[in-house]
Amino acid sequence: MTLYHREIKEAISTAYAVYKQYKNIIKNPLTFRADGFVMQILYSEGIYVDSHAFSSDLCGLFHVDEYEKTIVFNSNQPVERRNFTLGHELGHYFIHSEMQSQFTDRTKDLVDNSIKPFEIQANVFASYTLLPKDVLEEMLYAKYSFHRIKKVVKISKEALFWRLVNHLIEVYDFSSGEAILITNDYLYYSIKKLNNEAHHLNAQIFRLSLSNKESIVEYLRNSDISNLTGIYNQGNIKPKNNSPKRAIDIIKDSLFN
Q1: Residue 104 forms beta bridges with which residues?
Q2: CA torsion sign, 232 to 234 to 235 to 238?
Q3: How far is Cα 200 from Cα 193, in angstroms, rounded to an integer?
Q4: Which residues make beta-bridge pairs with 60?
Q5: How far apart are CA 181 and CA 220, in angstroms?
Q6: Which of 39, 47, 119 has the alpha carbon at shortest distance from 82?
Q7: In this predicted model, what pLDDT tens digit does every residue of 185-228 receive, in sequence order?
Q8: Fewer CB within 10 Å: C terminus or N terminus of the chain?
Q9: How far apart are CA 250 and CA 55, in angstroms?
């Protein structure tokens, strides 16, 4: 991703400009829904939206000509994937429509490790538009758990995970590894809250500030989320499984199953 630093900054800047233009649509950040926000932008921009039950891994397409602007999404997709597809195609509209009149996007294009500059930009735009910075900060300030944000916003687990990672990098100037460490801790406690085994407020993200960010990272590194001793001691709960991979397995199961 660092190879495309300039392109990523352009996509973030464009997403912020679009948010600034349409932020009055958002009445209450704590009940923000990605689909409602994106659809209002599409309507205001005069973009025709349609769906089709594509049988392949085709997620969506964007086409513009002198007559109309059209986005088509795969109706077989779950709602969270559909929302990201719409945000992705909207990114093509705002960033690339003067350079290219049509985009056809498949699953490989809508993932974090895409290597195509246009697709990376569309993914970044979608991420920042589906969950704007101001909205995310309001939800964290209100102590929302990872899964509550996902449920309210209608965003996928994977998209929310990487949106949080990028938010921590942007706001606190963390390295990607440090941001992933804090996000893993937040997700882990949110999973434990769902299982009534610990409270999500134990996550270090709720204690994070510019003045203590180094000590937070050091604490998590010493605790090591793959070794639950520190985390369990902090929450005063005993692990059901002492396997050192237990926490990571829980997180992976939540993200990818």
Answers
A1: 61
A2: positive
A3: 5
A4: 73, 105
A5: 7
A6: 39
A7: 999 999 999 888 889 999 999 999 999 999 999 999 887 564 43
A8: C
A9: 32
Q: How far apart are CA 158 and CA 165, in angstroms?
A: 11
> Residue 18 is which amino acid?
V
For residue 204, the 8-state DSSP code is G
Contacts of 187 (CB under 8 A, 6+ apart): 146, 161, 251, 254, 255
Q: Are 133 and 107 in contact (CB under 8 A)?
A: no
3-class DSSP assignment, residue 224: coil
Structure tokens at 201: 């407020």
Q: What average pLDDT is seen over the chain? A: 84
- Compute CA 30 distance to the chain's CA centroid, rounded to the nearest angstrom: 16
* Residue recorded with tokens 């941001």: 179
In this structure, which CATH number among 1.20.120.450, 2.40.340.10, 1.10.10.2910, 3.40.50.1100 belongs to the domain 2-130? 1.10.10.2910
**163 vs 145: CA distance, rounded Å:** 14
80-138 per-position pLDDT tens digit? 989 999 999 999 999 998 887 878 878 776 666 556 888 889 999 999 999 999 999 99
Task: Please write the tens of the pLDDT for every residue from 140-169.
Answer: 999 999 999 999 999 999 999 999 999 999
Residues 129, 85 contacting (CB under 8 angstroms): no
- The phi, psi pair for 69, rounded to 5°, reads -115, 130
Domain ranges (residues) in the chain: 2-130, 136-256
Q: How far apart (Å, rounded) are the C-alpha atoms in residues 179 and 174?
A: 6
Contact 73, 86 (CB under 8 A): yes
